């Protein structure tokens, strides 16, 4: 069953098209990752799926309904998006930020409720941010700040979460921390997660479904082990590589060619010949 579907989608800014006649289906209850070179349209596609960018042609279907015909607050109860590098107002606490996730449920006749409080505190607990709820967002580390923003999206209590490069500017420890959190949300709550990632190896480790974008269209989509190979990396990223298996997870692992210090120069040809290519 699909959570989101893009049908014959054309997207762009002014007269420039970024995506043309693209059709994809996002599986419900799985982690989907968009990959591709810089400027290929990954973020543009994600924004369109959240109804932040109106298509020039085609449309988006959310849970079987045309998203353009669903009231804005109803969309926000079904789908949450975390843009790349969001910025919060100065002086905002973590608790106040996470409370913003309850905005779709507010009305002129409905104030702060027990349900709102449960959702906010639950989101803080799920992201391990409860102890930091009274801290100012701009005083947090990069990983803590990203967890606070993810907590805000969780407070929306949507089945589907879209994230644009959630690990950008984070060190290795915080990248894994954020991706593990998203993985747990998928595993425990069956949330549909859709995100843009630049690290192909991490995309292969965490994604059930990968969509590779090139030349304004879908180049390939499917399970990482089915579509990630040397030809795909060469075509999509214009980079030569070897593909082997991650020794811990068994997922495809890309070893890029290029220059650098080689401690095994005399054995490099032999070692490449032993790499199991997918």
Characterization of this structure:
The protein is an alpha/beta fold and 278 residues long. The chain has a domain of 73 residues. The chain has ten helices and twelve strands. The strands form three sheets. A six-stranded mixed β-sheet has the order 6-7-8-3-9-10, sandwiched between helices. A four-stranded antiparallel β-sheet has the order 2-1-4-5, with helices on one face. A hairpin with a 2-residue loop joins strand 9 and strand 10. It is globular. It comes from Aquibacillus salsiterrae. It is found in: Cell membrane. One of its GO terms (molecular function) is ATP binding.
Keywords:
12 strands, 4-stranded antiparallel sheet, 6-stranded mixed sheet, cell membrane, ATP binding, 278 residues, alpha/beta
Provide mean pLDDT, rounded: 92
Strand order, main sheet: write it out. 6-7-8-3-9-10
Spans of at least 5 consecutive residues with low confidence: none
Report the sheet-strand fraction.
Answer: 25-35%
Order of helices and strands: EEEHEEHEHHHEHEHEEHHEEH
Derived structural class: alpha/beta
Shape: globular
- The radius of gyration computed from the alpha-carbon positions, rounded to a whole number of angstroms, is 20 Å
The number of E-state strands comes to 12
Sheet having the most strands: 6 strands, mixed
In helices, the fraction of residues equals 25-40%
What is the CA-CA span between the terminal residues? 28 Å
Number of helices: 10
């Amino acid at each position: 069953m699909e959570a989101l579907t893009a049908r014959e989608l054309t997207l762009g800014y002014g007269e420039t098209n970024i995506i043309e006649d693209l059709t994809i289906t996002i599986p419900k209850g799985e982690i989907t990752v968009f990959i591709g070179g810089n400027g290929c349209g990954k973020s543009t596609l994600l924004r369109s799926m959240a109804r932040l960018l109106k298509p020039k042609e085609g449309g988006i279907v959310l849970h079987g309904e045309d998203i353009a015909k669903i009231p804005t607050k109803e969309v926000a109860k079904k789908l949450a998006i975390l843009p790349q590098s969001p910025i919060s107002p100065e002086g905002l606490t973590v608790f106040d930020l996470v409370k913003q996730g309850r905005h779709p449920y507010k009305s002129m006749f409905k104030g702060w409720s027990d349900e709102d409080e449960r959702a906010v505190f639950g989101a803080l607990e799920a992201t391990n941010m409860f102890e930091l709820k009274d801290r100012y967002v701009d005083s947090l580390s990069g990983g803590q700040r990203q967890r606070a923003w993810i907590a805000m999206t969780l407070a929306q209590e949507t089945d589907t979460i879209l994230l644009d490069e959630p690990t950008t500017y984070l060190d290795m420890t915080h990248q894994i921390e954020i991706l593990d959190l998203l993985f747990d949300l998928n595993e425990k709550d069956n949330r549909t997660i859709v995100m843009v990632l630049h690290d192909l190896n991490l995309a292969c480790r965490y994604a059930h479904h990968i969509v590779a974008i090139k030349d304004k269209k879908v180049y390939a989509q499917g399970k990482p082990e089915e579509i990630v190979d040397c030809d795909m990396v060469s075509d999509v990223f214009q980079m030569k590589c070897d593909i082997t298996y991650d020794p811990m997870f068994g997922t495809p692992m890309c070893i890029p060619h290029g220059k650098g210090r080689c401690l095994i120069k005399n054995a490099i040809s032999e070692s490449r010949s032993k790499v199991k290519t997918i």
